[in-house]
Amino acid sequence: MPLKVYNTLTRKKELFEPIEPGVVRMYVCGPTVYADAHIGHAMSAIVFDVIRRYLEYKGYKVIHVMNFTDVDDKIINKARETGQDPFELAGRYIEKFLQQMDALNVKRPTVMPRVSGTIDEIIAMIQELIAKGYAYEVNGNVFFRVRRDKDYGKLSRRKLDESLRGEREKFAEELKEDPLDFALWKAQKTPDEPAWESPWGLGRPGWHIECSAMVRKHLGPTIDIHGGGNDLIFPHHENEIAQSESCNDAPLAKYWLHNGMVQLSGEKMSKSLGNMVTIDEFLAQHDADVFRLLVMGSHYRKPLVYDEQVVPQAEKALQRLLSALRPSHGQLTEGPEAEALLEAARLAKKRFEEAMDDDFNTAAALGHIFDLVKAINTARDAGVGGEPFAQAQATLKELTGVLGLRLQPKEAQQSDAAPFIDLLVEVRSALRKARQWELADMIRDRLAELGVILEDTRDGTTWSWKR
RNA sequence: GGCGACGUAGCCAAGUGGUUAAGGCAGAGGUCUGCAAAACCUCCAUCGCGGGUUCGAAUCCCGCCGUCGCCUCCA
Q1: Do the beta carbons of residue A356 and residue A404 sit within 8 Å?
Q2: Judging by beta carbons within 10 Å of its beta carbon (0-12, 13-18, 19+), is residue A301 exposed, middle or buried?
Q3: Between the CA of A364 and the C1' of B21, what is the distance in angstroms?
Q4: Strand ranges (E), A176-242
Q5: Which CATH number fits domain A20-268: 3.20.20.220, 3.40.50.300, 3.30.70.100, 3.40.50.620?
Q6: What is the model's pLDDT at position A143?
Q7: Could you tell me if A74 and A34 are in contact, meaning their C-beta atoms sit under 8 angstroms apart?
Q8: Domain ranges of chain A
Q9: Exposure string (b/e) for A339-361, b if CB count within 10 Å is 16 or more?
Q10: Rounded to an integer, what distance in angstroms lies between the CA atom of residue A307 and that of residue A299?
């Protein structure tokens, strides 16, 4: 089935066809590492993780590159304030970010370049831009000549003279030929700033050039997918296009994909607004699957509502998915019930793919997964077990796996209290046999107060930790 | 001020021209159960407001109201 993706560049859904058949080259803008990552970063990482997983599910080989911005004003400032070495500071946050991505079950990108490891390529690119007349040097700084780039603004659909006037990067205004121009290279101002030797003296790269250089270095002049948060459309991605396309005389990316922002109490979550929930804070309270369900529950291009109400809802939705993975003790392996289950699994898979093929419509895809959950539970109630039941559960695991869900039930055993709870359950079972309902109920109620949920089934009593 | 997005049940959220408007959460009733829990069954919206186009619109067009994003660092 054909995959369609929404391309920010054309503002349309387009048929997805990679430049090289069978291979997808994807570059996603990563974080600037100077503070704890928040769930907005997590959302973006998860969105593109799912896109990657689905492309791989469809049989593509995906080369996924994500950068770390480890040279930047904010890092330098923070290092100064706290008396640290900027590279050590950045390195620590990179390490932490990687651990958080692992915790969120985000597959590691194929390559994760850093600015500090791409300086030669950046300098080379700037030299080419100067040679072609797209850039100029002033007192050790190099700027991009925006007006020289005839189709500047095509991604964000801005016209140069209307809304861009004067409101550009504040760096070194007085040195620029035109206030619209932006920095490719910044001269070192004080000795404690990280700096590299260059044809223009000691200095460091501007923000946008790193991505242009990294894309070319690791993926070539033109890639299939370029992604990031929609707050990067302007100026970051616009400037990347200007640099790369002026330099390489080739389109930078065939498809531009952008995710929406996490909204916290009706506002965009961001470091500068200070209204953030960090990834660590979230994961201290909830399973990673809960956050993935939150993200998958709405379309990636739309803003994601996050509040105290929506989290427990996702929590319950996860419980429901888990309910379908409970074993069946039924014996039925053929007949209308077993066939209905297998048909439901086939249908769920087909509809899941149709939904995902439509610009990664994970919300619709999830809906079809829940239909399968119901079918599995119904079949279990009807006594279906064995191979058909296992097959349906395998389909469920396969599809949820494409969404990056782990669906690991909380291990009841891995608690020091487990043997004692087992003992209480055993005693209670004896009481129930003796029809001592009051005592049996008391044990159940008191355990519930302690966060242990008991469930009596035909095959005995099971227990699990609440949440 | 410029550009753009969105407004679907109590909450989250698919659907963007035509069968009964997905799914999850919450709620109501029921089956099962010693009672529960879980699961299962049933019920629960005419799509911000006002016009228009059309045989037919939540879905297209116009206006209004409201919310949000970008235009400065930002996933």
Answers
A1: no
A2: middle
A3: 14
A4: 182-187, 203-205, 223-229
A5: 3.40.50.620
A6: 95
A7: yes
A8: 20-268, 286-402, 418-465
A9: ebbbebbeebbebbbebbbbbbb
A10: 17
Residue A170, pLDDT above cutoff 70: no
Q: For A381 and B32, how far is CA from C1' in angstroms?
A: 10
Domain A286-402 in CATH: superfamily? Isoleucyl-tRNA Synthetase; Domain 1 (1.10.730.10)
pLDDT given for residue A159 in this prediction: 80
Whole-number pLDDT of residue A303: 94
* Helix A209-218 and helix A119-131, axial crossing angle in degrees, nearest 10: 110
CA distances (Å), origin A88, targets A70, A84, A85, A114, A439: 10, 7, 5, 13, 60
Q: What is the pLDDT of residues A55-104, one digit of tens each?
A: 999 999 999 999 999 999 999 999 999 999 999 999 999 999 999 999 99
* Protein CA at A413 to nucleotide C1' at B35, angstroms: 27
Q: For residues A34 and A229, what is the distance between their CA atoms, to the nearest angstrom?
A: 18
Chain B nucleotides with an atom closer than 7 Å to a protein C-beta? 1-6, 11-15, 22-26, 33-41, 67-75
What pTM value is reported for the model? Answer: 0.95
Quote the pLDDT of residue A275: 82
| A267 sits within 7 Å of strand B by its CB | yes
Positions 117-156 of A with beta carbon below 7 A from strand B are: 156
